[in-house]
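Run folding on both entries below.
>entry_1
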Amino acid sequence: MSNTQRLGRTDLGISPLGLGCWQFSEGFGLVGGYWEALPREEVDAIVAAALRGGITWFDTAEVYGKGRSERALARALQAAGARPGDAVVATKWWPALRSAHSISATIGERLAALAPYPIDLYQVHQWAGFSSVEAEMFAMARLVEEGKVRTVGVSNFGEARMRRAHGALASRSLPLASNQVKFSLLDRRAERNGVLAAAKELGVTLIAYSPLEQGILSGKYHDDPALARKLRGPRRFMPAFQKRGLARTRPLVQELQKIAAAHGASASQVALSWVVRFHGEAVVAIPGASRVKQVEENIGAQDLLLSPLELRRLDELSRAVR
């Protein structure tokens, strides 16, 4: 697998795997509180390990701890000695209870939080704002034209909204770089609802978040169900982590482990390799990490080459999960 590929039809080059930075929220806020706060030293070590391992881009958001994740990422990049431009930085504007005017009104806060690093990819985090898709895209286009951000993407957009976003930006001679959606071996809605097909048609990169289903596809909760009972936060109560949920996904996880053993790899690495290889370069992924060991393991997926037979076998078992 090539170490870099183009982000959509932009001139940005990215690695097949980025690092999702939701876990850097310092446990703050409704969204950021999903994860326990990580020590600053651990965040610094995770980002440094990602850079050493060839990860070239990092995805954060305003709503991840109300800027805390952005600031933590900037501090960690500086601690690792990364200069502006050494890594691609992506963040997101939160539209809930806001209009498109907020995009320009708050860009200064985003730039300050990430300083000295520029915003390479600025995304609308989800679709539920007060303004139309077109108004949001025109506001984003103005930021590009003013040199405040480099490229524009969306997140959690369905096919129709993604097409509208693409059209609005095209009218300003700009590409829609990406659409960030939940996608994994256990969540393949993007294949069924037209999002992936449209993204391929339009030259939009699909960014897969939760590609390991928050750890389910690692197999550790199947091997030791007691670990799920020790979880803190909402995951402990999610059906996927309960006895019935683990039984439902066990055949797929066992196949991941079987393939992993044949490659001297881990189930997580196999699951990530499938996400970024099954559809060629149409899909990239942003697994998160709460420990250095996790990001180092994720990095190994970039060089793991699955055979066509292995890719198809996982495809079949994935579709069979109900």
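>entry_2
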Amino acid sequence: HLMASWMVAHRLEVRQVRRLVAWAGVAADLDGLSIVGGPELYGRWHHALTHGLSAALLIALICAALAHDRRSVWWLSLTAFHLHLLCDWLGSGVEWPIQYWWPLNDTFYETPFGWELDAWPNWVVAMLLIAVCGRIAITSGHSFAETVLSPAADAAVVSALRRRFAPRSIPLHVRNT
């Protein structure tokens, strides 16, 4: 979820704002903290409390309030959050629905087109995300690693990726930046 959400934000100029949007896409899993109450509570509330529109609007509002470019951050945070929901809806298992309208409505939404969490489509998506995030890092100068690492560590990741994977047509001083 974090890689996919970072891809939503990667074109933003300010690192902190990219990080905000990326983590907005992970925020839907806050309801996973229900595991502290045991497996029964987790089974009932994960994909319910924060896997819906109410939580999406709240998270987007918080992210927008913390950013200078509020409108862009609002929409990108909402997009990243909903990308998480789509990924969960399709790739978390056919018998694990999402309660999108909670607390307004208790209806669970499921899809017959989904697959289990450990199924091959999730592996394909993960490999594609890694490749695309690597390509973005080489061309943009910032990587997915910026979501969890310092700017210096992110620069080291980008430098390593450029040294190893940048096309030889890119001058050495640009590839090693």
